[in-house]
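Box 3.1. Reading complex inputs
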Amino acid sequence: MDLTGERVTLRALRREDAQVIAANIADPEVIRFVGGWAAQPYAIHQAVEYATEDREGSISWAVERRSDGAMVGTTGLRALDRQNRNCHWGITLGPPSVWDQGLGSEACVLVTRFALQELGMEKVYLEVFEGNDRARRAYEKSGYQLEGTFPQDMLIGGRLRTTFRMAAYRDHPNYRTQP
Amino acid sequence: MDLVGASVRLRAAEPGDAARLAPIVSDPRVAVWGGIESRLPVTEDRIKRDLTTTEPGRTRWVIDSREDGVALGSASIFDQDFRNRHAWFAIYLGPPERWGHGYGSEATRLATAWAFGELGMAKVYLQVLEANQHAISCYRRAGFEVEAVLPRDHLLGGRFVTGLVMAAYPPPTSNPPPSA
């Protein structure tokens, strides 16, 4: 089912989304903080594959801006661990002109709530890299707290940088079920 | 090559190791600290497959006691990430009667030094449950420090328990500076 908030609707990916997905991964400013795999050239057929194929162990949504229906990125859960009841959340939004509109924060809250309340997860965790202070602040507002700091973890632009791991828990006030 | 310390030798798996290691893997005092896979019944065939299957990015050794040549467990350096220059370490060792002799910390130190020296890694990670104090002190002796405390990370005996991520870094480089 779609997950709808004030600013965004999260829906299943479609073949037409491939253009935006590929354009985002082609944009150095967008992928600066997504990790090393995005340093490789990324072809449109890879984006089509991503948008149309079901992947075991992960769940993906397209992020649609409600004001104009524009598809502005992808978000998803992976490493779904049903036994220990946790999973990893991630997002890619672009072009940069769509940042700072609260779209990412809302997508974060919608997917985190879905994982905790519908999938029965105990916690959802994420990784954010050194220098991405915008994202860290947004995640804190969305109820994520720091769990670990890993210096020299991720090569970005020729230097091994720090990765921060944050997590949101089932009993956080943002996500507690309303009586 | 084998990795040889004062008390242990890390070597390639040989036929017969699976039968030697099966009682260790099946001992609840050992298995409880592994993931869910280790708490399932583990066949000799499965142990043999784990020991002998070669996959890219994973290096595995059998740990022998040098004193009496008995196989005590297995260690591995896996998820070898050459771009980000880190890898993960895992070990099991038993039976518990043989704990407390420094085998674990020496095996940890040997495998970690190998990852730095032979793979060029800048960092080695491991995961351990917070309640596994014996293992944590082994890892500390081998140079690991806690970098993350992960509350409610694992379900164990019906309860959520805390996991730790520990990491070790190579010693300062001993390469001589380039001559002028």
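In summary: Chain B has a mean pLDDT of 94.
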